[in-house]
Design goal:
about 325 residues; alpha/beta; 10-stranded mixed β-sheet; two-stranded antiparallel sheet; 10 helices; 12 strands; binds S-adenosylmethionine
Amino acid sequence: MPIPTTYSFTRYLSAKKSVDDRALNQHVWQSLAAALPCAPPEQPLQILEVGAGLGTTVERLYAGGMLTNAIYTAIDLEPRLIAEARHRLPQWAAAQGLHVRQDSQEQIHMQRPGLDIRVATEVIDLFRFIAREQGQRTWDLLIAQALLDLVDVPTTLPALLSLLRPGGLLYCPITFDGGTVFQPEIDPEFDVVVEACYHQTMDRRLVAGKPSGDSRTGRHLFTHLQAAGAEVLAAGSSDWVVFAGSNGYVADEAYFLHFIIHTLHTALTGCPHLDAERFTAWIAQRHAQVEQGTLVYIAHQLDLLGRVSASIGETRK
Ligand SMILES: C[S@@+](CC[C@H](N)C(=O)[O-])C[C@H]1O[C@@H](n2cnc3c(N)ncnc32)[C@H](O)[C@@H]1O
């Protein structure tokens, strides 16, 4: 595909789905399936997804047989993403042969015999959501996919976990863990500097003046979960690996790659450690490699499944 002239985060998230599908760690996924409590009709599974984007995790959990009787709350900061989720999910559900009812603008209800899923979507910052819901409501499963590397985990994780019922589960797949690889090499020394500078932008990211990111979030999660009183039930790598086969890049993955290069370009423009002219040429060459189908991109990520202590109150069986 030609180099895009404009970029859409919505299209990027949609293009990311096939990359995630390949990357998600199957051991952690199966462990999640095994750990989920069974949900009788009178007690649907309560699932909360923070930073839900387009709602693709709903589609994936359904395909994996993990959503049969559930109330799914999907929140995201970005109105255009939630608008797209509201547009996309009913169409997807109808294509699965589910009976779809719009309970309200915010909630869709999907049914077939033996299956009942309500998905409520909301545009809200997760910190405001936590402040509003803490002590009011709890969930059986909390999902944070490709999100924890964007926040300050030591302070955010305990607050998020407080939304889980005793014994509740946390599933945090596609958590970045300090590896960005582009092949073929352009200039091995410069490639390494670009990668280091890119990771530094994550480590130094501030949102509203607060630290919000860590380029090695994945590996640090083990300690953070333990410190927050949660047990790690399963963990494994979920690296993105994108390359072109004989028919080019699959699905919309050429766009995904252009978007990643554009993100690097935006993040590192003005970086004092990079010669501006050389960096501009480097970016142009990476885009050209996508057009030629020669670019291979690998991002190292981890999936973790955790459980909070069941010692307080009753655990659902
Ligand atoms: C990398 S995207 C991942 C989206 C989705 N989980 C996926 O994997 O396709 C991160 C998402 O988190 C959302 N997000 C970031 N900070 C947030 C916050 N403070 N509150 C709610 N959502 C947030 C972004 O709008 C974005 O949709």
